[in-house]
Design a protein that fits this description.
Blueprint (H helix, E strand, L loop, with lengths): L2 H9 L5 H11 L2 H13 L3 H14 L4 H13 L3 H9 L8 H14 L3 H14 L4 H13 L3 H11 L11 H11 L3 H14 L3 H13 L3 H14 L5 H12 L3 H14 L4 H13 L3 H14 L4 H13 L3 H13 L8 H10 L3 H12 L6 H13 L3 H14 L4 H9 L1
Amino acid sequence: MTLNEILRQIETGQNDWQEQLETYLLNAEPDEIYQASEQLAAYGFVEEAIRMLEHLVYLFPEEEQLKVDQAIWMLEVGREEQALTILQEIPRQSEVYPQVLLAMADYYQMTGLYEVAEQKLEEATRLMPDEPLLKLAKAELKRETGRYLEAARIYEEVYPLRSELPHIDLSQKLAETYSAGAAYEEAIPYFKDSLAQGEAPDKLFQYGYALFQIGDYKAAIEQLDELLAADPDYYSAYLLSAQAYGMLKENQSALERIEQGIEKDSFEKEYYLVAGKLALKLGQEDKAQRYFSEAIALDPEYIDGILHLVHLYMHQEEYEAVVQLAADVQADGATLTSLYPFLAQSHHELENYNKAYDFYKLAYTEQKEDVYFLEKYAYFLLEEGKRKEAKSVIEQLLSLHPQAVEWREMIDNL
């Protein structure tokens, strides 16, 4: 039985392929065993590949390439100590030593020891300064550690050699790296080049996001439309597309797009928040209220949704609804101090003066710099005859606006 026949058995799920493999290996040449190890590793049978390489190392102990390959596969399956021992035994003068350094750099990068990984890569680069794969490894490390412009510079060095690296999309790597560093203008031409080589949902979304970031909202929508036509379940595209329509002030189209997103993913609270805000812009207060309520239903502590609904209730003078919403939030175990000013005003309007007073006092600590709140609090205290406390609040107002004549006169009268 040939190796290809054994691989077909693996593909079709037959259980006796291992017995067939053992028979095959008994009569196979070393090169065939090596090829079989690569094929098995590609199919996910890494431990089997390691055992085959161990056999080859036993036959050819001077072949250090076999040891490197063996160590790399050991790292793949979590046998780090054995792998590092093998790598450390390979001498510096060996032809494969740069590969040793690269393998060790990958390991240290994977374990978060970035400085050690960079040292290994620098050493390997000194031995092989023109090796593009080493440069790419350095770029990947710098990108992972947030040094995006340094990574992009290295990718740019390798970019003219992209035809020699057919399995690596350097255009996409440059586009993503520039985007990660917020250099969206620089990323655009590389996104175009990468998409010309072949479209994919993630590429289209990232390109659309870059276009959005540079303010080309119309082009962003076109890319996202193309993405959604190819993959209607790419949920993030609905939100970004709606935001792009919103930036163009095409609020009806924005609302329709985010509602399409809600149909696809009804458990994303941010979709409901955006839908509510767009409905408000279109004057559809009932719809906005429903969407804000849906967002809070998904997450009772969702502060953005709660505050938008509270602001809507205050605008509608639905003070009892504000009080009830706060009670519901507390019933779910949350205490949101940002609601205190609204509760103070709502209880004031509902003539629950004692509760209004309590909430004004609670809110004061965090609202000392808010002139609008301080004015309402001062007038409330004056109405309640609490002149001494009112004077203290008015003095705080004057500290923020010393030239305010009205408040200066009121202090004098008090």
